[in-house]
Specification:
Number of strands: 6
Helix content: 55-70%
Largest sheet: 6 strands, mixed
Number of helices: 11
Strand order of the largest sheet: 2-1-6-5-4-3
Oligomer: single chain
């Protein structure tokens, strides 16, 4: 009977821990995602914290939120250090079971990924594991250096220096990325101006000598057409002019690639993505939907 009572008490305790843990899951996932740059790895870290919690003595935990944050941070640090030693990229997205036995909520994963921001995540990749942990926990989630010192196993003063060094590197990388983005946008604007003005000299000047034009109209539209060489691409000036003057072009970003979304009367028709090299356009990729073309809509594959 005594063992039955202990077993039932333990089950009640597990259920209570699970309920308390779920209140912190979203915050822990955001924190881990920032540190690891991978939703799958972040869920692994959070799951590891749950397993540790489920095996812990509740009388030894004074502040559950702080305890969980520290545990997740330590797991993330170990994962980053292991990744660094193996020089591996984050694992692909995969589902992970939570304490309730259900799979991680896809909507929550999307919210976490959105909160990270691709630009910042790319910047964080230049930091060492310890710098990354210190920066994320202090500058993004507001933990004290005393708390972070326990995670990275350094003094608070050394931890402060870690975060400061990381902050300087992040700032430099962000400024460089912003400069590159502005330069790319200016070059694409110059392409549009040359196309609208039918200025061959201006178009040739911004095209790389090895420029390529890839046009994908899908199977129904004839497949892919490729033109190679600055002269061949510049030879499409009349078509570029027709596209630039009959459509509305909007700057967009597709997985870090500067692009234009071209629409006609509010209907998207083509996406043009640009590869930049040395301040010139090296490659233009055009994705066109043949089913949405009108009789006045030029097609590069004709």
């Amino acid at each position: 009977m005594g063992m039955t009572m202990i077993s039932e008490d333990r089950m009640d305790e597990q259920q209570l821990w699970a309920q308390q843990f779920e209140l912190h899951r979203a915050r822990l996932s955001r924190s881990a995602q920032r540190m690891l740059g991978s939703a799958a790895d972040a869920e692994d870290a959070v799951q590891g914290a749950w397993l540790k919690l489920s095996r812990s003595d509740p009388t030894e935990i004074d502040n559950l939120a702080a305890w969980l944050t520290t545990v997740v941070a330590r797991i993330c640090l170990d994962m980053l250090r292991a990744r660094s030693r193996r020089a591996e990229e984050p694992l692909e997205m995969r589902s992970v079971d939570g304490p309730s036995g259900g799979r991680a909520d896809p909507e929550q994963q999307a919210l976490v990924a959105d909160s990270v921001g691709l630009a910042l995540q790319l910047v964080l990749d230049v930091l060492s594991p310890d710098e990354r942990i210190a920066f994320v926990l202090h500058d993004i989630f507001g933990l004290s250096f005393d708390d972070i010192a326990a995670v990275v196993d350094r003094t608070p003063v050394a931890t402060r220096k870690l975060a400061s060094r990381a902050r300087q590197r992040v700032r430099g990388q962000q400024e460089s990325s912003e400069h590159t983005a502005r330069a790319s946008r200016a070059l694409i604007d110059a392409f549009l101006a040359a196309a609208r003005g039918e200025d061959m000299h201006a178009l040739v000047a911004i095209l790389h000598p090895d420029a390529e034009l890839h046009v994908d109209t899908g199977a129904a539209g004839g497949g892919v057409r490729i033109l190679r060489g600055r002269e061949a691409v510049a030879g499409q000036l009349a078509t570029f002019h027709a596209m630039a003057t009959t459509r509305t072009s909007e700057h967009i970003d597709i997985d870090g690639v500067p692009s234009l979304l071209n629409s006609l009367d509010g209907v998207p028709l083509t996406v043009m993505s640009f590869t930049i090299d040395g301040g010139q356009i090296l490659r233009i990729e055009v994705l066109s939907d043949p089913e949405r073309r009108t009789k006045d809509d030029p097609a590069l594959d004709r």
